[in-house]
């Protein structure tokens, strides 16, 4: 029995996108959407999604749980590395001083990067340690909701 790789990957990507949408994150799939969203006033958490195991086992669960907190960003968005290439490149253009990293999280305020949780802070860690790191940044930079 042969498996069609493209069909398999489409299913994996679809599921990964749905996980983020169910968690309250808006998909940004074009450079224009990224530009319009990241330049808004307020705080924005960008989750750089990917199909790797640490995205599915650590980053997406952390993204889902971190936002259940007294303080959180005004906007929750996601771009998909390797899938929405122009959107991802545009988002990364805002992450001055940080190398490309996926999965990862970027916290911005009024279009300016505040901090990031990079892949090396996700891969090999448990989801709760990433949740705690994100919520620590929410405490520091975000308003109570």
UniProtKB/TrEMBL annotation:
Highest taxon of the source?
Answer: Bacteria
Q: Which Pfam families match?
A: Disulph_isomer
UniProt-listed InterPro entries: BrxB/BrxA (IPR009474)
Q: Family, per the entry?
A: Belongs to the bacilliredoxin family.
Q: NCBIfam families attached here? A: YphP_YqiW
Name of the featured protein: BrxA/BrxB family bacilliredoxin
């Amino acid at each position: 029995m042969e498996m069609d790789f493209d069909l398999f990957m489409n299913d994996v990507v679809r599921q990964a996108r749905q996980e983020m949408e169910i968690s309250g994150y808006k998909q940004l799939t074009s450079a224009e959407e990224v530009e319009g969203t990241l330049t808004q006033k307020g705080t924005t958490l960008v989750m750089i999604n990917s199909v790797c195991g640490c995205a599915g086992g650590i980053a997406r669960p952390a993204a889902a749980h971190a936002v259940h907190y007294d303080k959180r960003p005004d906007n929750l968005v996601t771009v998909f590395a390797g899938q929405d290439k122009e959107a991802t490149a545009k988002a990364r253009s805002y992450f001055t001083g940080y190398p490309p990293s996926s999965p990862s999280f970027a916290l911005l305020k009024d279009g300016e990067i505040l901090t990031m949780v990079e892949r090396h802070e996700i891969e090999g860690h448990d989801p709760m340690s990433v949740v705690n790191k994100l919520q620590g940044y929410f405490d520091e930079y975000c308003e109570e909701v």
